């Protein structure tokens, strides 16, 4: 029973739709299980199996696996009907949980439908990004070719004669080439950078460069010598180095720009919604100043717990933004995030506030240094160097 209970927990979310729908039966669809008046049909069983994540679905392969899954559906339905009979539909915890699920689902649906699906990246932004980041879209010279490899020049010449006489190059390669790696594929070597080498074929960088420079697509080469033997080659593709066209990289640029555009649109919508719904925060409720600035500064200095220090410094800055220790506290918020908690994003935000809100502070240079060198080297100062001892 314990194994079944664990299984029920693992797939309960996937089965929720079955329980809520009541497992209705379509005409002509075979009933594979029944719990009281509720039927589970074969079509519903297959559908629920298909909706499982691939890794979970692997556990229910074959007839035995399908029956095992069906048993779990039955267990879920039995437990659900028992819960209904026992009155748990009216349980306060159940109602709160269902309301929380409904709330999250509606918010997610609203975000998807009213934010994500309405964001577009203007073509001028795509073009501007392409123009400003052309180094990201450079491609190196590449070639794709077929070859017939032979141990001697005369054998390579024979393969070349057969091709020039009208035989299919791939067929000759399968019949005559000594390269086991490409023979079955008709001598095909997939696209390679011209600046690289192909040690398995005995072709160094200079060999590939000459192949790229001296031969056209479709032209059958003379026998060419490599470290592994002789080759007759036909280029199938020759791509020159240069900037990829915008049409080729447009989708990747849109994907790069989309998160920022989505965030920008979301912020605008959110501000509009706040105005519509007259949303406001009573910051005064948090500015009761139960502790003095000096008390908070001392508490922060006296504790070794970084989270407690962070809370004390944050409370100080919040309640005493123009206080004597405000700049130091703001800097220490960034310092704790960067050096003790490894939280780069909030650390940068904290240091940026030092620079923008306390431009006359002696800590501005240190804050800028932390932003420029975060994670790359140890800071040239310690916490005690920052804090005043007055």
Count of DSSP-assigned helices: 16
User: Percentage of helical residues?
Assistant: 55-70%
Decide which structural class fits the backbone: alpha+beta
Please outline the major beta sheet.
Answer: 4 strands, antiparallel
CATH class of the largest domain, anyone? Answer: Alpha Beta
Number of domains: 3
The largest beta-sheet arranges its strands as 5-4-7-6
CATH architecture of the largest domain: Roll
**Mean pLDDT rating:** 89
Principal-axis shape equals: flat
Order of secondary-structure elements: HEEHHHHHEEHHEHEEEHHHHHHH
Return Rg in Å. 35 Å
Beta content:
5-15%
Poorly predicted residue ranges = 1-25
Q: CATH topology of the largest domain, what is it called? A: Chitinase A, domain 3
How would you summarize the topology of this molecule?
Blueprint: H1 2-21, E1 31-35, E2 38-41, H2 42-51, H3 54-57, H4 62-85, H5 92-114, H6 123-132, E3 138-139, E4 142-150, H7 153-164, H8 169-176, E5 188-193, H9 205-214, E6 224-226, E7 229-239, E8 242-243, H10 246-276, H11 293-302, H12 306-319, H13 326-339, H14 344-357, H15 364-373, H16 383-386
Helix pairs in contact: 1-4, 6-10, 11-12, 12-13, 13-14, 14-15
């Amino acid at each position: 029973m314990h194994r079944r209970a664990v299984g029920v927990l693992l797939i309960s979310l996937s089965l929720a739709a079955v329980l809520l729908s009541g497992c209705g039966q379509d005409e002509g669809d075979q009933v594979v299980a029944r719990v009281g008046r509720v039927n589970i049909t074969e079509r519903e069983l297959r559908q629920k199996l298909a909706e499982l994540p691939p890794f979970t679905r692997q556990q229910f392969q074959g007839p035995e696996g399908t029956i095992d899954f069906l048993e779990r559906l039955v267990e879920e339905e039995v437990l659900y009907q028992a819960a209904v009979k026992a009155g748990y539909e009216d349980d306060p915890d159940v109602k709160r949980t269902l309301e929380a699920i409904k709330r999250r689902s509606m918010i997610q649906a609203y975000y998807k439908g009213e934010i994500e699906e309405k964001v577009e990246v203007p073509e001028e932004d795509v073009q501007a990004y392409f123009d400003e980041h052309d180094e990201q879209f450079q491609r190196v010279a590449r070639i794709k070719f077929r070859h017939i490899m032979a141990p001697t020049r005369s054998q390579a010449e024979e393969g070349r004669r057969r091709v020039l006489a009208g035989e299919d190059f791939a067929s000759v390669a399968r019949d005559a080439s000594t390269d086991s790696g490409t023979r079955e594929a008709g001598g095909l070597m997939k696209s390679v950078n011209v600046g690289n080498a192909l040690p398995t074929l005995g072709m160094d960088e200079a060999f590939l460069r000459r192949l790229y420079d001296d031969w056209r697509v479709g032209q059958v080469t003379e026998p060419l010598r490599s470290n592994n033997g002789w080759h007759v080659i036909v280029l199938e593709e020759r791509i020159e180095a240069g900037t990829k066209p915008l049409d080729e990289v447009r989708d990747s640029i849109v994907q790069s720009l989309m998160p920022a555009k989505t965030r920008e649109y979301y912020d605008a919508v959110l501000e509009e919604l706040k105005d519509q719904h007259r949303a406001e925060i009573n910051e005064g409720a948090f500015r009761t100043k139960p502790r003095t600035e000096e008390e908070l500064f001392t508490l922060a200095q006296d504790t070794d717990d970084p989270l407690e220090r962070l809370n004390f410094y944050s409370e100080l800055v919040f309640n005493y933004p123009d206080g004597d220790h405000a700049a130091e506290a703001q800097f220490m918020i960034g310092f704790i995030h960067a050096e003790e908690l490894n939280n780069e994003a909030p650390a940068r935000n904290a240091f940026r506030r030092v620079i923008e809100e306390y431009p006359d502070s002696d800590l501005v240079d240190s804050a800028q240094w932390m932003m420029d060198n975060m994670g790359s080297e140890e800071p040239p100062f310690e916490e005690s160097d920052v804090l005043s001892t007055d």
